[in-house]
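quick one
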Amino acid sequence: MELPFAEAYKIKMVEPLRKSTREEREQWIKEADYNLFQLKSDQVYIDCLTDSGTGAMSDRQWAAMMMGDESYAGSSSFFQLKETITKITGFEYVIPTHQGRAAENVLFSHLVTAGAIVPGNSHFDTTKGHIESRKAFAVDCTVDEAKDTQLEVPFKGNVDPKKLEKVLAENADKVPFIIVTVTNNTAGGQPVSMQNLREVRAIADKYGKRVVFDSARFVENAYFIRTREEGYADKSIKEICKEMFSYADGMTMSSKKDGLVNMGGFIATHHEDWYEGAKRFCIPFEGFLTYGGMNGRDMAALAVGLDENTELETIETRIRQVQYLAAKLDEYGIPYQRPVGGHAIFVDADRVLDQIPKEEFPAQTLAIELYIEAGVRGCEIGYILADRDPVTRENRFGGLDLLRLCIARRVYTNNHMDVIAAALKNVYDRRHEITRGVKIVWETELMRHFTVKLERL
Ligand SMILES: *Cc1c(COP(=O)(O)O)cnc(C)c1O
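structure w/ pyridoxal-5'-phosphate:
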């Protein structure tokens, strides 16, 4: 018989998990004002809040940390990191930063001015924030398919070339660069095809524009290209990454995702003028160019993490675990954004708790129910996160209302996936009894989801 798939590692250090009782969780979530961000991590059994900076490092990464060089200037760990990034991406200029949003801040300080238009595929919220705070505009050119959660298409994260071309035809002079997010986080961790990256490159060349990849999950994207796009099944992940980046002029990176480290980021490019421009902002914001807000030891761990994660066995283990959980939800008939993406499951809360009106926040209600059921912490990506319209101050109910369950890298086993799925099934089975949601009793004007206070109705 064919041997089943198994993880490409064994475990040699463990951290005990604390289970709790339903009564404890009811008390804790009440004390947290029904906001899961306000829970303490030891009040959580399985934490699916985010996959950002929550992964486990390998023995090789920990060993690299011991060898890290904490020099202010000319750290050998920086050169180790730079060499690895150049090997994987082809970019020869590298600026480290303390995380992804800092990379955006440094690069955009050089490139984005008031009135600029930055087209792309569903800009990540900090990316959008760094554009809009400079009084510039982020124009979303994602394919329409991304909006239909039940549609099965292989590359739902793509840029719509027609939408992109329209922006450039009308406003080319205002566009400093095009940004492509791989994978498309906001659309549900959905990949962008190589064909689409080529099309974006061709349009950029036609209008003489440059392209930045927001690369937080570039390895997951490469894995999807390998498994879903014709002509890539025999290529290595490193070869695919190299080709992807050959269509870009530069990248911003949150190393907390596919870098397999708990903190870090960087900018890389092959344009000297971008490097020179960004350098001026790295020094005041992040630190000198050979550390940019990172410890030498952390740069060393990142170099090893990037190298490890761009090996097929590592990334395959990661994606197959997310797919394992998705298959369980299929078995139980629980609706989620299809096909499942690289880092998380997005449960379609509007379809699960269809008796709860939008005004009572179904996805947040589902997140609370799942926590009380089993101590599993997810995250609302829905109407609370959407904030209010800045002009009318009305809630924005136009988008999707999802419960996101992120899977941390190399942290939980498939037994934990079984627990998550069973807990969701239990909530799903009693969904008709859940008829009331929550109401907001206190909120901030922007990014209210982190601190909002809620009451159960
Ligand atoms: C996480 C993320 C960022 C921001 O990175 P941080 O390290 O959290 O600052 C930017 N873009 C995408 C696509 C991300 O997933």
